[in-house]
Amino acid sequence: MQIIELLTPHYEAAWLPWAVQYFFLAGVATGAALLTALCSWGSTGSSLQRLLPVAVLTLAISAIAAPVSLLADLHQPARFWHFYAHFTPWSWMSVGALLLPVFVILSVALCASWWLGKTHWMRLLSPLLVLSALSITVYTGAEMMAVRSRPLWNTMWVPVNLALTGWLATVGVAFVLERFLPAALRPGAAALQLLRGLGLALAAALVAVATAWSLTGMNGGSPSFDAALRLWNDFPVWRMTMVGSAIGGAAVVGALLRGRHRLGARGYTLVLGLGLAASAWVFRWALFMGVQGVPKFGAGLYLYHMPLGGDGLLGMVGVAGLCVALVALASWALELFPARQAKAVA
What we know:
By secondary structure, this protein is mainly alpha-helical.
């Protein structure tokens, strides 16, 4: 009799928590870009026009913070120039290195146009920003979907879910940030109801996508469904995660449905916004960090212990602190230059 012992080597996670932050902020930024482009065409005094300030604020914060997270996730951020010196068009990461700067420049340009009160400029830039936002959505989703060794990533459902959850997070972040705007720029009840309607539409789309994925998987047409079913059957921790996600999603949808008569309460919009943003973030954590704990071959799960330093908890806190600092800076600028408010609202 021969005995063959297989040893599992210790190796670093390919995706660090920085990636969760980047893909979350990128999703928020693309959603904010689409919302800002739409609102820039709103007529004076309309709900779309009233939503424009908070859409611009959300876009400015997320479009600036997202690239910082990406650079940190490169393990050696100073080597980002290698993407340009050694361009590989068959790599989505290399293609993204070209798409992301274009998106950031267009986002900042549109935000500056709003700040200067140049509505004509905004409407000229908005189609370009929409195309750029969609290119970022495709690139971020395809970057995961290209990993053929993991069925949970190698599926068309991943880019769709990343997009929808990211845009739902945009709604949540907008609910949170609107309270930091000067009184003259706050959306008002009608505009908040419109934002809530967008959230309900995105939530309904997510339910439809989940149903289609399940039905496709039951008919044997989705390897990702088979992989998820194995996790459900074999690992209680994944079973609890999936049940918790379903309960959390139902709670968020319920909060959106009940918000018809409660959006006037400041505490309610804060809790609702944080819940929407947190659900999108948790989805990315499970998709990135959780799936990496599933062996490509073999049984069991890999154990991941999040470091407390820059590659883990401290880095995540740092990104949150950067966002808080950007919100504080934007609020200070809007309070310091009230004349800009008059131009923006006019």
